[in-house]
């Protein structure tokens, strides 16, 4: 076996003293100082692996990848603090008018009023003066046979009177339920026609009566009326009492 290896090595030696052996695959350098007839030894065993080298430099960044799928929604965060109120915006355009509503129930209007005058100067003291000249008494709440107004609707009423004074002094009073509520006195001036008047607000219950009468004796009975001078008595409901 050794003889065969020696023959093969002799055949592989250069024929013309070249320093290198050329072949189709490898170039084997000739050891320095070797003789022309040297013999190669048996190949040794592979050596141990060397120490790993240092990490190389970072490579060039690659191209941007495609967008990934959306991740799962995270839990709802805490409510933030209220922000600062913004500046008031400009006024908007008027909206479209709504539909017409259904007709409502008509409100009942309470009415009670009268206005009457004196047709004759004949009056009797301390009884109701009968004003028989009717200007207005549509509800018939004034009775011209007694001279009294009868309350049919409880509420607040306004009463007034205007008296022509002639020949004697006048002292009249406005009564409510047999109680004098208002007094008016006027002293007659000789050869002159004078005037006396009064007005008052009264709350009346249903069934109350209001009238005007001469107060005292006949010396204060100067109430007068003719075709050019009037003495009047008026009253009307301001608002009714809501039950």
UniProtKB/TrEMBL annotation:
Residues 39-100 are annotated as: Disordered. SMART domains: C1Q. It comes from the Eukaryota. One of its GO terms (cellular component) is collagen trimer. Residues 1-17 form the signal peptide. The keyword Flavoprotein does not apply. It is found in: Secreted. Residues 107-243 form the C1q domain. Keywords: Collagen, Secreted, Signal. Residues 54-69 have a biased composition (Basic and acidic residues). InterPro entries: C1q_dom (IPR001073), Collagen (IPR008160), Collagen/C1q_domain (IPR050392), Tumour_necrosis_fac-like_dom (IPR008983). The keyword Signal applies. Pfam families: C1q, Collagen. PANTHER family: ADIPONECTIN (PTHR15427:SF20), EMILIN ELASTIN MICROFIBRIL INTERFACE-LOCATED PROTEIN ELASTIN MICROFIBRIL INTERFACER (PTHR15427). This is C1q domain-containing protein. It comes from Eschrichtius robustus (California gray whale).
């Amino acid at each position: 076996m050794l003889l065969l290896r020696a023959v093969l090595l002799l055949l592989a030696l250069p024929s013309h003293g070249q320093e290198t052996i050329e072949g189709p695959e490898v170039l084997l350098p000739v050891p320095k100082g070797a003789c022309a007839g040297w013999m190669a030894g048996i190949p040794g065993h592979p050596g141990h692996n060397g120490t790993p080298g240092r990490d190389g430099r970072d490579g060039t960044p690659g191209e941007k990848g495609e967008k990934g799928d959306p991740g799962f929604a995270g839990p709802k965060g805490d409510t933030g603090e209220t922000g600062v109120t913004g500046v008031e915006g400009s006024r908007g355009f008027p909206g479209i008018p709504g539909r017409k509503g259904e007709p409502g129930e008509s409100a009942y209007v309470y009415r009670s009023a009268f206005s009457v005058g004196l047709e004759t100067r004949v009056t009797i003291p301390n009884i109701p003066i009968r004003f028989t000249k009717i200007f207005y008494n549509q509800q018939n709440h004034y009775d011209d046979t007694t001279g009294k107004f009868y309350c049919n609707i409880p509420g607040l009423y306004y009463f007034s009177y205007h008296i022509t004074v002639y020949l004697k002094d006048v002292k009249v009073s406005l009564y409510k339920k047999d109680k004098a509520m208002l007094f008016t006195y006027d002293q007659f001036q000789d050869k002159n026609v004078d005037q006396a008047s009064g007005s008052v607000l009264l709350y009346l219950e249903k069934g109350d009566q209001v009238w005007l009468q001469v107060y005292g004796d006949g010396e204060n009975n100067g109430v007068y009326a003719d075709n050019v001078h009037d003495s009047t008595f008026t009253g009307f409901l301001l608002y009714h009492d809501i039950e």
